[in-house]
Amino acid sequence: MTIENAQKDIIDNFLFFDDWTQKYEYIIELSKDLEFMSDNLKSEDNLIKGCQSKVWLHAEMINGKINFLADSEAIITKGIISILLNVFNNRKPQEILDSDMGFIEKIGLKEHLSPNRANGLSSMYKQIKFYALAFSKS
Amino acid sequence: MNLSFNVEKIRQDFPILSKKINNKPLIYFDNAATSQTPICVIDCIKDYYEKYNSNIHRGVHSLSDEATSAYEDARNKVKDHFNIKYSEEVIFTSGTTHSINIVSNGFSKILTKDDEIIVSGLEHHSNIVPWQMMIESSGAKLKVIPLMENGELDMDEFANILSLKTKVVFLNHVSNALGLINPIEKIINMSHEKGAYVLIDGAQSAAHFKIDLQKLNVDFFTASAHKLCGPTGVGFLYGKKELLHRMEPLMGGGEMISDVTFSKTTYADLPHKFEAGTPNISGVIAFGRALDYLNEIGLEKIENYENDLLDYANSKLKQIEGLKIYGESKNKTSVISFNIEGIHSYDIGALLDKFGIAVRTGQHCAQPIMDHFGVDGTVRASFSFINTFQEIDDLFEALKKVKSMLS
Q1: Would you place residue A115 in the very low, low, confident or very high pLDDT band (cuts 50, 70, 90)?
Q2: Range(s) of the domain holding residue B208
Q3: What is d(CA B293, CA B42) in angstroms, rounded to the nearest whole number?
Q4: What ipTM describes this predicted complex?
Q5: Which CATH architecture has domain A3-137?
Q6: pLDDT beyond 80 at B285
Q7: C-beta atoms of B347 and A74 within 8 A
Q8: Burial of residue B197 (number of CB atoms within 10 Å: 0-12, 13-18, 19+)
Q9: Is the model more confident about B388 or about A109?
Q10: Total domains in the fold of chain B
Q11: Residue B366's CATH number
Q12: Who contacts A84 (Cβ-Cβ below 8 Å, separation ≥6)?
């Protein structure tokens, strides 16, 4: 599945919700899907700056694709990471570099992109792209 | 409960309160970060630009005279409101942070490496960083008044660290993160006995009760307009005349000089020495209007009403299982800093926003306090006289729902 299709799937899933409660309950559910990240990976190096709750992101290149592991102390942030990783995990660097974040607005989570939120959705995406850029050159 | 306080009538003065957030009426519990603005203050800013926008203290024309009078009138309003002796002891600044920087910069030229300064452990970063910068240039030593378990200052320890070497003591009147009111009268007297000067940061106190600076006999005091129903980007520094004369200005520029040649500049008299450049004229004038507004309601009435709100909120929130309040004390303003066991403060704040409720979450620019309690951050609900008991009920119901969603 392409990044674009993965984003479309997420948009379709979010269309089911009538109100914000259902949407956030779903995000909270998604937080539980996140793959386990061991404490030794929750290092200062992997900490994303600019997040009100601590967010760690670790990346490794496996068979030409980037494998991400991430975690946060806040559940909503974790749920949002889970959405991001659904889209960007196990992708070739170039695929990530060619992507955008338009789908976040379409699923009504635009407020999480606001620089004021400091929940790091923008910082997370930026970091994902940094990794992609770094791996594309290695 | 205070029945004489007509909160519904007061709320009509605040246009923002008719706003909907996520299709729900705005419930604004972030008053400690910034207060909302009554229509008379908004009109005052509009009036300035529509009727007498002009630079002050320099024109010979009527508009400039009008703007200068209004600006100086605001200075007198600050003087009267805080019972300051001389109007030239009121320096308009961009806010509390700017004021603190003026004082710390002034002292950096006066202190030496043998001197000590004392800060409280309850400070906002704005009252820590300027002094750390000052220490680097003067070599003076910094000592900290530690906190007791509930977050109040350890006054025994203060007595221990205070000495003849202490030259400046600086602390907030009310802690922004917890709302605790510090025993500043005692601190000022004890400091003066050792010959130390005291700077009080009144950012979190001035909106909640009347402050008499002559009676306090404090050396420096500062507050920001935007926490007093005024506009952002304006505040004032009060300093005793003889100290302001001794201090060098933080900024050079127009308005603050009396004589300039390329070899030497003579500074203007107080207060202009510290007011370089064109100030926020409309903001200062509107600040004066905001003080009038608060006085029209009466700070004593505001204080009583806010105390009732705080008591009510305390009794409601404590009914929520697992909710822990930080900084409990009889001496506090209408602020509740809390966490719910097992839930991150960010999650609570983000979901409360969905209910239209604005709170602050995180460290509140006071990392040392968070470290004291061993937490990463808290949720801070700060109430003011524009809030209602019904809104506190709504917060209580919303918190119960948020808790069930997140547990």
Answers
A1: low
A2: 42-296
A3: 12
A4: 0.88
A5: Alpha-Beta Complex (3.90)
A6: yes
A7: yes
A8: buried
A9: B388
A10: 2
A11: 3.90.1150.10
A12: A70, A121, A124, A125, A128
Q: Where are the alpha helices (DSSP H) in chain A?
A: 3-15, 20-31, 75-88, 93-97, 102-106, 121-137
Mutate to test the interface with A, among B34, B341, B344, B405 (most CBs of A within 10 A): B344
Other beta carbons within 10 angstroms of residue B338's beta carbon come to: 20
pLDDT value at residue B348:
96
Q: Say whether residue B377 is in contact with chain A using an 8 A CB cutoff.
A: yes
Query: How many Cα atoms are found within 13 Å in the side-chain-facing hemisphere of B45?
Result: 16
Helices (H) and strands (E) in chain B, counts: 14, 17
- Answer yes or no: do B249 and B214 share one domain: yes
Q: Read off the tokens for A56.
A: 């760690």
Beta carbons of A21 and B361 less than 8 Å apart: no
| B40 among known catalytic residues | no
CATH number (domain holding residue B234): 3.40.640.10
Model confidence at A117: pLDDT above 60: no
CA B20 to centroid of chain Cα atoms: 28
pLDDT at B129: 83
Count of CB contacts below 8 A, A vs B? 41
Write down the mean pLDDT value for chain B. Answer: 93
Average pLDDT over residues B206-235: 97
Q: Which two tokens stand for residue B150?
A: 């509930």
Asked if A77 is an interface residue toward chain B (Cβ–Cβ < 8 A), one would say yes
Residues in B closer than 8 angstroms to A53, CB to CB, are: 344-347, 376
Residue with tokens 């006085």: B295
Q: CA B84: distance to chain centroid? A: 18
Read off the tokens for B84. 């300051």
Residue B235 structure tokens? 């505040």
Once rounded to an integer, what is the mean pLDDT over residues B235-241? 98
- Where does the pLDDT of residue B256 fall: very low under 50, low under 70, confident under 90, or very high at 90 and above? confident
Kindly report the number of other CB atoms within 10 A of residue B58's CB atom.
Answer: 11
pLDDT digits (tens, 9 = 90+) for A7-55: 999 999 988 888 889 999 999 999 999 999 999 999 999 988 766 778 8
